[in-house]
Give the backbone structure.
Amino acid sequence: MGVFKGSIKALALSSTIALSAGTAFAADILPPPPPMEAPRSMPAAEFSGWYIRGDVGIGQNRQEKFRSSFDAGFAVPGLQYDQGSMSSHLMAGVGVGYQFNSWFRADATAEYQGGARWRQVESYTGPAAPAAPCANANRCVDLYHGNISSAVFLANGYVDLGTWYNVTPYLGLGVGMANNRIGSITDNGINQGGFGTAPAVTKNNFAWAVMAGMAVNLAPNMKLDVGYRYLDKGSMNSGRIDCGGAVACGFETHRVKLASHDVRIGLRYMFGDSGYAPAPMAFQQPLIRKY
């Protein structure tokens, strides 16, 4: 009986050793885990498609190269231009464009600019005639008021300079036409009496612009556009000032160059693929356990 018990114990011990050896051998022949792949960055997106835009803004007008003229044979002694200014204007516009690739786009825009007031002061040598209100004065002064509005149509091209943290700076050029209107001109003689008015005049001029700004990705198909623009709208003449039928009027006209520094803010909606992509995700390593 003792010999039988010893045989059972030996058989159990041999089975345990064999099972352990088989498990270790099976573990040795398992294939190794796949190699870990390093995280890869996403290449720059190439995209194209149509977009629409809407903008509002404010512009500070510049008065340049102001001049006035009179009928032939009418002379004003000692005429000089003392002060001149233009107020700011408000603007609103729409446009449609095409994004050719990740760095170039073009659009056509139409906008209205209004609310600008024009003011000019002129003076001249006072007459010697005692009947004149400013007789023997050092200077006679005229004060002019008017308003200016424009409809501007431009074809624009832009170079996008890359995107960082969803912000894309850009530079642009535009050419087109400005339909300018100078109206409601009045002429007040400050110290010599008299009053004059001029009819409104509208003229189409060549216009050009240079731009710089940035676009911010708000959503996959929506961008916020904030930019600066210098806009040249050409030169034009006002209507002839009628002094109420006075003979000594001269029917003066004013010539002024129209230009402005504009700040605009707007939205661009992209149709189709906008090139907006989330940040690339890092490769997740597999979980390996050793038993």
The two ends are 40 Å apart (CA to CA).
